[in-house]
Design a protein that fits this description.
The complex is a heterodimer. By secondary structure, chain A is an all-alpha fold. Chain A contains twelve helices and no strands. The chains are: A mainly alpha, B alpha+beta.
């Protein structure tokens, strides 16, 4: 397994290189935009020269790129041009916020998607199945940010409530923390839940048609036993892949959700930094997202090999 | 009461005078946007597409609130932003983290008066004595003003030396400060003694007092300002003489402040225990937070403000923004050297339509100065009789006559440049329609959504006509001189030139007598309207909404002018 993991890590290096290259290069496509954004109407050639030097815009691209990569490898993500703080120091606490939101969303996706998918499969082509599939289609087709805006507005107007703005750590007050994260995580999970539900249903239907399930029925086992002991385990294996991919999407989705729910995570940090044209945080956050997605995929692959030995082949 | 007042914005045509006279009565300041950059001889909010208005919710007090006795206590909670990363008020143009924090934590030498648009003493005991034909300004500093009891000042008295080093620092920052150019005319600053400060100017400059009252000219302790360019980088560097101390701050997240433990040196002000500002650029999220009672105030665009109109739990405040929408004319192009063409364009612009269509009626048609400038703006009754402010039919007829006299009776084809930012593109749509009515067929060139790139095009003169907007301090030099002077006009992007106007602009800048200066400023506005440089359209209105328990809320056209730190208080339920 270690060999397998090592091979996957090596294979992910080109991806990281491409992402880092894009993250670094994209914001340098129009260096003048950065300079004028910083200087505004105070723009003079002299001042512009200073800003270009500050950002290294007057050096060749590759020189700055390799300098940046070298710093990143030593843990130096650069400093914010606005707050003067190291990006790593600013990013640290925000990662916890984003991870918590994404993990809660995944939990919701599992708790909602898997049972509904299984139930739907067990009641195939009956009205509960039709109803739940419609729900899944709705979950997939209505954008999460739209649902979030509607729900927040509804709660604010009808119940004078939104998730509290004062943030509390989970370990200091779990209930208060849940009030802050449950709603955004739930809405963020809707599309993933729908996806998981549909996948779980399909896989379950597939498994339920297998000979060993028929044998289990023939032996007179109760439905609960057939499903939980024989069908579910095999049906869920591919769902793990979906959850892994969904986790990557969820991390990306936090960009909008953090903004809507006033959560100070990596996503809102990225939005803010882009608006401020603050190079270092934008590069660092883009790289963070890329690394997170690669790591998640790696974990999924590794877990798959653990759960299904055939995947090693 | 405030709601009824505000509701009139939707039921009646916007009247400029109504806003001017209601300055003390309604309020605004919460809302706003900011523009990219500002001139170095100006002082404006700018930065990178950040809100310019500030969140300093200043509201009016209803009659009851004004007569009621303030009560101490409560934390003022505000949601808005962006709350940026540069705490240094002298180096930034983003109002929240610099202007707002420092307004609570510090003081000005002289500050902007929201009702008059004129400077008034803050740390100064009175307005300065002016001598030597206007080149010597002597201030007396209040002897009772004390810094907060924190290192490195530990509660010591504010001295003339502190003020001197503050202004020397701003001037010395050069390209690192959007405001250093404002002090180019300052020759020397001398602390004569502990409470006497003398500015020696190279030439008389009445506007210097307006500049000093602008939102970012906060006085720092000499121990901090003498550290140079990087003097204010961390929360612990925020030490002022104001009533509140910074407790926590995180860029892009928010900040909290609490009342200074040693007591504020000004008596009977600063009632709330502290504040909590939360970063949230999304307008719907801000409205939700207010509805849910998570915050006490926010700024909102006109469409979202309406939901609070009939709810007695909220006070709605509004004020004109110092931003001015305009159709910029490039005078270096041969066609626009003919004043009749420019006059025709000026007349063809339907200013009311601009604000009805682009800003849902929340704007005030105006001339070269924003209504936010209060005392400096041409009186409404007179403005109504000026070109461009008559009936639509009359203006179009006159515009066509002007085009005919210029030899283009059927108009002409032209390119107009704009950007998808700050509603400039929507403004452009109106201009295109307006000018089509006199035969000027405009082809739009939209350069995208980066205002800074658009700004560079303006600065380089790479346009013929441009639909744009400018944000400047609400006083004469910032709104007139720098946009219309041939050589001193750092924002005269259209290269408008008139020796006669230059002379008047220079003259007004030397007049310390407000009445005399006002008369000349009015005359200049008349001149510009009759012989336009840029075709000014007017100013949008900013809206703020506050919980009705919050008292003394008043609107400010920008971050200066009204200090919530000293005035807000909560009515007990």
């Amino acid at each position: 397994m270690w060999k397998f993991a090592a091979r996957r890590i090596v294979l992910s290096l080109p991806t990281l290189f491409i992402v880092s290259f894009l993250a670094f290069g994209m914001i340098r496509i129009n260096p003048d935009a950065v300079v004028t954004a910083r200087l505004g109407e105070s723009f003079t050639e002299e001042a512009a020269k200073e800003v270009r030097a500050e950002y290294g815009l007057d050096n060749p691209f590759y020189v700055e790129y390799f300098k940046w990569i070298g710093n990143v490898l030593t843990g130096d993500l650069g400093s914010s041009a606005l707050s003067f703080e190291p990006v790593s120091a600013e990013l640290g606490p925000k990662i916890a916020v984003t991870l918590q939101l994404a993990l809660f969303a995944i939990l919701f996706a599992i708790v909602i998607g898997v049972p509904i998918g299984v139930y739907s499969a067990m009641r195939q082509d009956r009205w509960p199945d039709y109803f739940l599939r419609s729900f899944a289609i709705a979950g997939l087709s209505v954008p999460g940010f739209y649902v979030a805006t509607l729900v927040l507005t509804l709660f604010a107007i009808q119940f004078s409530w939104i998730p509290p703005l004062d943030k509390t750590q989970f370990w200091s007050d779990p209930m208060e923390n849940l009030q802050q994260y449950a709603l955004p995580a739930f809405i963020l999970s809707l599309a993933t839940s729908a996806s998981v539900m549909r996948y779980a249903r399909t896989m379950m239907l597939d498994v339920l048609r297998q000979d060993y399930i028929r044998t289990a029925w023939a032996k007179g086992m109760r439905e609960r036993m057939v499903i939980s002991r024989h069908a579910l385990r095999n049906a869920m294996l591919p769902v793990i892949t979906i959850l892994g991919l969904a986790m990557a999407n969820l991390i990306g989705g936090t960009v909008i959700f953090e903004s809507l729910f006033t959560l100070q995570g990596v996503g809102s940090y990225l939005v803010y930094s882009v608006a401020q044209r603050d190079f270092a945080p934008v590069q660092a956050v883009t790289l963070f997202f890329a690394v997170a997605v690669i790591l998640i995929n790696l974990l999924v692959d590794v877990s798959y090999t653990l759960l299904d030995p055939r995947a090693k082949v | 009461m405030a709601s009824n007042y505000w509701n009139r914005w939707w039921t009646r045509p916007a009247s400029r005078r109504r806003v001017l006279t209601s300055g003390g009565a309604a309020a605004a300041g919460l809302a706003g946007f900011a523009l990219v950059g500002c001139g170095d001889d100006d002082d404006e909010p700018a930065g990178t597409a950040s809100p310019a208005g500030t969140g300093t919710a200043a509201a009016t007090a209803s009659a009851t609130a004004q007569t009621a006795k303030p009560v101490a206590g409560g934390t003022y909670r505000y949601i808005g932003g962006p709350i940026g990363g540069l705490l240094d008020p002298h180096r930034t143009n983003t109002p929240f983290e610099s202007g707002v924090i420092w307004h609570w934590a510090g003081n000005f030498l002289v500050r902007f008066n929201i009702d008059t648009g004129l400077p008034e003493p803050d740390l100064a005991q009175a307005m300065p004595e002016v001598a030597s034909d206007g080149t010597d300004l002597t201030f007396k500093i209040r002897p009772d003003a004390k810094f907060q009891n924190k290192a490195p000042v530990n509660g010591r008295t504010v001295s003339a030396e502190d003020v001197k080093l503050t202004f020397e620092r701003i001037k010395g920052l050069g390209a690192k400060s959007p405001r250093s150019g404002n002090y180019a005319n300052v020759d020397t600053i001398t602390a004569v003694d502990a409470t006497t400060l003398k500015f020696k100017l190279k030439a008389p400059q009445a506007d210097l007092l307006n500049v000093m009252s602008d939102q970012y000219e906060l006085v720092l302790p000499k121990e901090i300002s003498s550290r140079g360019e990087e003097a204010v980088q961390k929360p612990e560097d925020v030490v002022g003489s104001g009533p509140y101390e910074l407790v926590s701050y995180q860029a892009g997240a928010g900040f909290e402040m609490k009342k200074r433990a040693d007591g504020y040196w000004k008596k009977d002000v600063a009632w709330v225990d502290g504040n909590k500002y939360t970063h949230q650029p999304d307008n719907q999220a801000k409205a939700n937070a207010l509805k849910a009672g998570e915050v006490d105030a926010t700024d909102l665009p006109v469409d979202l403000v309406k939901q609070f109109d009939k709810d007695p739990k909220y006070t709605i405040v509004s004020a004109p923004n110092p931003t001015r929408e305009c159709l910029l004319i490039n005078h270096t192009k041969e066609r626009y050297k003919d004043p009749r063409i420019r006059q025709a364009i000026w007349r063809a612009i339907d200013r009311k339509q601009v604000y009805d269509k682009v800003f849902a009626g929340a704007g005030i048609p105006g001339g070269p100065m924003s209504p936010a400038a209060k005392s400096w703006v041409l009186p409404e009754a007179e403005l109504a009789k000026m070109p461009g402010f008559g009936t639509r039919a009359q203006e179009l007829a006159e515009a066509k006559k002007l085009l005919a006299a210029a030899g283009v009776p059927d108009g002409f084809e032209e390119t107009i440049t704009t950007v998808t930012a700050f509603q400039a593109d929507l403004l452009n749509d109106v201009f295109v329609g307006n000018l089509a009515e006199i035969g000027i067929k405009l082809k739009t060139e939209n350069i995208g959504n980066d205002f800074s790139v658009f700004l560079q095009r303006e600065i380089r003169g790479e346009y013929n006509l441009a639909s744009t907007l400018f944000l400047s301090g609400p006083y004469p030099d910032a709104q007139l001189l720098i946009y219309h002077h041939t050589t001193k006009g750092s924002r005269n992007y259209g290269k408008f030139g008139s020796a006669e106007l230059d002379a008047k602009l220079e003259k007004q800048a030397t007049l310390y007598d407000t009445k005399a200066r006002q008369a000349l400023v009015f005359e200049i506005q008349r001149d510009i309207i009759n012989n336009p440089g840029p075709a000014w359209a007017g100013s949008r209105i900013g809206f703020g909404v506050a919980s009705s328990t919050l008292q003394n809320v008043k609107a400010s056209p920008f971050a200066a002018g009204y200090n919530p730190a000293e005035n807000y208080w909560f009515k007990k339920a």
